[in-house]
Design a protein that fits this description.
heterodimer, A: mainly alpha, Rna Polymerase Sigma Factor, Chain: A, Arc Repressor Mutant, subunit A, elongated, B: alpha+beta, 2 domains, 7-stranded antiparallel β-sheet, two-stranded parallel sheet, 11 helices
C-alpha cells in the first residue's frame, strides 16, 4: 500500500485535473450549481478514500464519472428531485411538433444557421434536453468519451448509445432551428423521420 | 421517386459521424448516402448539429467555483489528518459532510425556521451583550501566575466565562484592522491571527498572564459562538504558557488538534506562523471544522 502522501500526490496528478469536466457535467446533470458542487465534492472525497482501489494507468476520468453517477443516483433518485426521464415516443412526438415538415435541405444552409447559434442558445438547448439525451450529448460531444465508455456509464448496450445520440442531436438541432427562426432565419431542413426503421 | 428504406438505419448516423462504426457498417452508410439524397441530407444536418456543440465545447464550460476547490482540498486534508492522527484524537466528522452553505440550508424549512428563531434570540442577546460590553471595563481574562499557564484548560475556562457573560469584549468590532490596532495599543506584542472563518467577528479582549499580554477573539455564527485564545510561540519557550503533551506534540508538528467534550463542544488547536490558536465552540466537530477555511490556517 502506498503512503498517504504518495496517494495524495497521485490523486492530485491523476484525478484533480478532471475536476472541471466533472463539475461541468454535474451542473448540466443537476441543473443546479449548489447541487453540482455537492455532487462533485462527494465524488472527489469518495475517490480519494478509495483511490487505492483505482488501477493506475487505466482511465481515471471514466472512473471518476462512474463514482459521480453512483453518487448522483444515490443522492437524487431517492428524492423528489428525481431527474426527468422521457419515453422514446414522447421524444418523437416532440420532434414531430417542432419539425413538422420534411423538406430538402442543403448542408451549407444548416452549417451557416448553426454557426450563427449563440453559445447561450446552445447551452440552453442542451440544458432543455431530457436527462438521458443530455447525458450522452455531454459525454460524447463535450467530454469526448467513446461510445464504449458512454455505454459503460449509462449501463446500456452500444446500440442504445448510438440511437440515443442520434435522437439527442435531432432534439438539439430542432431547438437550435427554433432559435434560428426567432433570429429571422428561414429554416428548411432535411428529415430522417421517414427512415427511422431499417427494413433490413 | 424515393428509394425504399433499405440498409443502415438513421440511428447509425451518429455512430458514422463519430467514427464508431465497423468498416462494413461505414461502407453501408456511405452507400446509402450516395443513393439516397434525403439520407445524405440527414447526415449533413446531424453533422452540423454535432459540430455546433463540439466547436463550442470550451465556451460551454463553466469554471469550477473556488469555494468548491477549497471544499475538496479541505475534505482531502481532513481525510489525511484523520488517517494520520491517533484514533483517540480523531475528530468526529463525516467525511462526506459538505461545507455549510447557509444559502442552501436556508431553503429547507426544517432548517430555516429554527435558524430564524435562533437568529432572533441571538440578535436580542447580542444587543443586550453589546450594552453590557460598553458598560463593563475590560477585565483581565486570567490572573497572573508564576507557573506556566495551561492554554488547553484555560481556554475551556475562558470559554465558560464567555458563555456566562463573565468575560466581555473590550473592543466590539468586526473590523480586523481596527482590532489589530486595538491589540497593538493594548500591548500585545505579536501579530494576532484572524482565521478565515464562516462566522462574524464580534470583537476582542486582552488578558495579562505572567506579565505578558495575549489576544482573545470571539466570533458568532448562526446562534453559535466561537472563542479563540491566541498565544505566541515565544510564550511556550519561556514557560509563560504550556500545553498538555499530546496537544503540544500535535502543535509542534503543525498538526491540527481536535477534541470534543460532551456538554461543552469542540476544541480546535492549531499553529499559524508564530501564533498558537486555541478555539472552542459549542458546535460539534464536523460543524465547527466546516466553519474554517482550513487550508488557509
Amino acid at each position: 500500500m502506498v503512503s498517504l502522501e504518495q496517494r495524495q500526490k497521485d490523486f492530485e496528478t491523476e484525478a484533480v485535473p478532471h475536476m472541471a469536466a466533472l463539475y461541468n457535467f454535474a451542473v448540466r446533470l443537476t441543473r443546479d450549481d449548489d447541487d453540482a458542487a455537492d455532487l462533485v465534492q462527494e465524488t472527489f472525497l469518495k475517490a480519494f478514500r478509495f483511490f487505492d482501489s483505482f488501477e493506475r494507468g487505466t482511465n481515471c476520468k471514466a472512473w471518476l464519472f462512474r463514482i459521480l453517477k453512483n453518487s448522483y443516483i444515490n443522492r437524487y433518485r431517492k428524492t423528489s428531485k428525481s431527474p426527468d426521464t422521457v419515453e422514446y415516443d414522447a421524444v418523437e412526438d416532440f420532434y414531430e411538433t417542432v419539425r413538422p415538415q420534411a423538406v430538402e435541405s442543403t448542408s451549407t444552409l444548416e452549417e451557416r444557421m448553426f454557426d450563427n447559434a449563440l453559445d447561450d442558445e446552445v447551452s440552453t438547448a442542451i440544458q432543455a434536453l431530457p436527462e438521458e439525451f443530455r447525458t450522452v450529448i455531454i459525454l460524447c460531444d463535450i467530454e469526448g468519451f467513446t461510445y464504449e465508455e458512454i455505454a459503460e456509464f449509462i449501463d446500456c448496450p452500444i446500440g442504445t448509445v448510438r440511437s440515443r445520440l442520434h435522437r439527442a442531436r435531432k432534439l438539439l438541432g430542432a431547438a437550435l432551428e427554433e432559435y434560428a427562426r426567432n433570429r429571422g432565419y428561414s429554416v428548411g431542413t432535411g428529415s430522417t423521420d421517414s427512415m427511422e426503421s431499417p427494413s433490413s | 421517386m424515393s428509394k425504399p428504406n433499405t440498409g443502415p438505419s438513421a440511428d447509425m448516423i451518429s455512430a458514422y459521424l463519430d467514427g464508431e462504426l465497423t468498416a462494413s457498417e461505414r461502407e453501408a452508410v456511405e452507400r446509402r448516402m450516395a443513393e439516397d439524397a434525403t439520407f445524405s441530407a440527414a447526415v449533413a444536418w446531424e453533422r452540423a448539429v454535432r459540430d455546433t456543440v463540439r466547436d463550442r465545447s470550451n465556451a460551454l464550460r463553466v469554471d469550477v467555483p473556488i469555494a468548491l476547490r477549497q471544499a475538496i482540498a479541505e475534505g482531502i486534508a481532513r481525510e489525511m489528518a484523520a488517517a494520520s492522527e491517533p484514533v483517540a484524537e480523531r475528530p468526529l466528522r463525516e467525511p462526506n459532510k459538505t461545507v455549510a452553505r447557509p444559502s442552501r440550508l436556508l431553503r429547507r424549512p426544517a432548517f430555516a425556521i429554527p435558524v430564524i428563531l435562533i437568529s432572533i434570540v441571538a440578535g436580542i442577546a447580542a444587543v443586550w451583550s453589546y450594552r453590557t460590553f460598553m458598560a463593563t471595563p475590560p477585565p483581565d481574562v486570567v490572573t497572573s501566575s508564576v507557573i506556566p499557564i495551561d492554554l488547553h484548560s484555560k481556554t475551556y475556562e475562558n470559554w465558560n466565562a464567555v458563555v456566562k457573560g463573565q468575560i466581555t469584549l473590550a473592543q466590539v468590532t468586526s473590523d480586523t484592522v481596527a482590532l489589530k490596532e486595538f491589540f497593538r495599543k493594548e500591548g500585545v506584542q505579536y501579530d494576532v491571527f484572524f482565521p478565515e472563518i464562516d462566522a462574524v467577528l464580534q470583537g476582542g479582549v486582552v488578558s495579562v498572564d505572567n506579565g505578558r499580554k495575549f489576544a482573545h477573539l470571539v466570533y458568532a455564527s448562526e446562534g453559535h459562538l466561537v472563542y479563540i485564545f491566541e498565544v505566541d510561540t515565544r510564550s511556550f519557550e519561556d514557560k509563560t504558557m504550556s500545553l498538555p503533551l499530546a496537544v503540544a506534540e500535535n502543535v509542534k508538528q503543525s498538526k491540527w488538534h481536535w477534541e470534543e467534550r460532551d456538554g461543552v463542544g469542540t476544541m480546535f488547536v492549531w499553529k499559524s506562523n508564530n501564533v498558537v490558536c486555541s478555539a472552542v465552540s459549542d458546535l460539534p466537530t464536523r460543524d465547527f471544522s466546516a466553519l474554517f477555511r482550513l487550508e488557509a490556517l
